[in-house]
Each structure stands twice: as structure tokens, then as C-alpha cells.
Design goal:
The protein folds into two domains: 48 residues, Helicase, Ruva Protein, domain 3, CATH 1.10.8; 122 residues, Dna Topoisomerase Vi A Subunit, Chain: A, domain 2. Helix content is 45%, strand content 13%. It is built from eight helices and seven strands. The protein has a five-stranded mixed β-sheet.
């Protein structure tokens, strides 16, 4: 057994959406069939790790600690925040073209079974963002499962509370248990357009 190859395959298998067979094919491609791709990939990963940082305002993807392009965009509504689980969800919503507000990345969702409580999520920053009184709407774009619903209820009770903020949740179009990042742009647009009070 080739130890170096197995380590490469094991590392690739940890990537989202990569199964055992896919990891093996990718490992063979990188190690034997196109070493130039492997070198370029290694350089891109090294560069990304050195520069990509969470946006200090929303938690989305940014570079070198600066606010992300969406947070810097003055044409975006400052009064509306779309709450998502992961930074990758922002890209999925942006492709739909249906949201013109800002974003807030939680970094996951509440999950007692996985020992993920509110203190492990970006809840305090969300509370701080809406504490100034300028926020008029928070749209919850969390996955349509038990953990997503529990997270929405927590935000409703503990973050928004009695504040005069319109709290909505994306509506129809996303099947139960689905994740936002895997839905197509039209489905997401439909879900955003049909958001309803939460």
C-alpha cells in the first residue's frame, strides 16, 4: 500500500461532496496523470489560506481581513439582513438575484446531538448588528430541517425578542431537509420571493 497516496486520498475524501471513489480518481489524477494541476492546486490552496478571511461584518468570504464586497456595496439595503448557515449559502442566494440586503453567517445551526449550542455560532455578532435599531427585516435562510427550525426559533426568542423587526423565513421551493447551497438559482429565487412572517 502506498502511504503517500492513501494520505492524499484520505485528505480529498474529507472535502464536501467527495466520496471514496471520487477521492481515489482525484488522487490518481493529481499524483500521476497531471502533476501540473496538482502543483497549481497546491499553490492556489496555499495562497487562499494566506489571504481568505471571514468578513469582519457579516462572516462571509473576504480577503486580508477587510469587509467583503457585499458589505462594502452602498447600493445594498442596510436595513435588511439575510441570515445563513455558511458563507457558501451567500453565493447561492446571490445567483438568484432576489436579495438586495446584507448577510449574516452563523457558521452552522443549533444541534444538541453534535453539541453545537448558541455560543458556538455567530449569534452574539447578530445581536450586536441589530442592536443599533437600523435593522427593519431579518430573513432566515436556514435549511428546512429540525435543526434549522430550532435555530430560527432561537433567533426569534433570544436575538430578536421584543424588538420591532420584521422576521421572515424563506418559503416554498426548498424541499424538507435540503441545504441552500445545493438548490438552483430559480428555486432559491422562488423561496425568497415567497418568504413569510416567522
Amino acid at each position: 500500500m502506498n502511504e503517500a497516496f492513501e494520505k492524499l486520498k484520505s485528505a480529498l475524501k474529507k472535502l464536501p461532496g467527495m466520496g471514496g471513489k471520487g477521492a481515489e480518481r482525484a488522487a490518481v489524477h493529481l499524483a500521476l496523470e497531471n502533476r501540473e494541476d496538482a502543483k497549481n492546486l497546491a499553490a492556489a490552496i496555499t495562497s487562499a489560506l494566506g489571504r481568505i478571511t471571514p468578513c469582519p461584518l457579516c462572516g462571509g468570504l473576504s480577503e486580508d481581513g477587510a469587509p467583503c464586497p457585499i458589505c462594502q456595496n452602498s447600493s445594498r439595503s442596510e436595513n435588511s439582513i439575510c441570515v445563513v448557515e455558511r458563507a457558501s449559502d451567500i453565493e447561492a442566494i446571490e445567483k438568484s438575484g432576489a436579495w438586495r440586503g446584507k448577510y449574516h453567517v452563523l457558521g452552522g445551526k443549533l444541534s444538541p446531538l453534535k453539541k453545537i449550542g448558541a455560543e458556538k455560532l455567530n449569534m452574539a455578532a447578530l445581536s450586536n448588528r441589530i442592536g443599533g435599531g437600523e435593522i427593519e427585516e431579518i430573513m432566515l435562510a436556514l435549511s428546512n430541517d429540525i435543526e434549522g427550525r430550532a435555530t430560527c426559533l432561537y433567533i426569534q426568542d433570544h436575538i430578536v425578542g421584543r424588538r420591532e423587526i420584521r422576521l421572515t423565513r424563506i418559503g416554498f421551493g426548498l424541499p424538507s431537509g435540503s441545504q441552500l447551497g445545493y438548490a438552483d438559482a430559480e428555486t432559491i429565487k422562488s423561496a425568497l420571493d415567497s418568504r413569510k412572517p416567522f
